[in-house]
Amino acid sequence: MSYIVKVERTQNKFINKFEINNFITNHLSFEYNNIDDAKNSQLAQELFYLPFVKKVYITPSFISIERFNIVEWEDVEEEVKNLIENYLNSEKEVISEVKKEKNNPISIYTESTPNPSVLKFVSNKLIVDGSFEFNNIDEAQEMEFAKKLFEFSYVKSIYISKNFVSITKYDLKNWDEITLELRNFIKNYLEKNEINFKRKKVETEEIDLDETSKKIISILDEYIKPAVSSDGGNILFDSYDNDKKLVKVILQGACSGCPSSTVTLKNGIENMLKEMLSDKVNSVEAING
Length: 289
Fold this sequence. Notes:
Elements: E1 5-9, E2 15-20, E3 30-32, H1 42-48, E4 53-58, E5 62-67, H2 73-89, E6 108-112, E7 118-123, E8 131-134, H3 144-149, E9 155-161, E10 164-169, H4 175-192, H5 211-230, E11 233-241, E12 246-253, H6 259-276, E13 283-288
Parallel strand pairs: 12-13
Antiparallel strand pairs: 1-2, 2-5, 3-4, 4-5, 6-7, 7-10, 8-9, 9-10, 11-12
């Protein structure tokens, strides 16, 4: 089979079309913006070696090439035509199959939180089984995903739970400067990697909780946690002082570190516990995780 290439001008003065008398791909078309894109096409790579080639578009019956504004087509189109014709007649493969890395398509969207320093990145799939908070890179040594997030200089702390990641940033950057970068990193990482992470169990003495503490935990789990989770945070029971009727809770993720949201949440929990446990609770103290 002999290939003949015919040059055809287009309405765009920067683009030339090189028509071919036989099909060169299996009913598929391929677009390449640079030589790195052209890993599966030696022909496209050879075209990019020409210094004036900006983009290459390969279809079953023609090749379109966009040039940089450093030459005129009339000066170089014959050279390009001959290159394509000689390549095709050498019976080399136009498009080769490239093994694609298996990945797991994931979509990530962002949600704002009551804490302006925290943004919630939500996945359409489960990320981890459990909840984990990291306040610095040293705490993240056993989770590669969190460790890599801390390599971004503006990441202050990370809270990961079920299908979302809450990131607290330093004030040196605005969210509109870094959101896309973080979103792309999280998406690409999760598509290529599975996070199998469990904290090592630390042996501690079992604490025998009194009935009031058990009721407080139950109320937090049933009424408070779902609400704060939707805002990218978490709340944990710390302790209950029966004499002072004081409840201490630990705030994580978006709930932590923001004075206004801390006060709002503390007051909300305090009012609910006072109402549901009558004279058992006088006050709530919120501790940032």
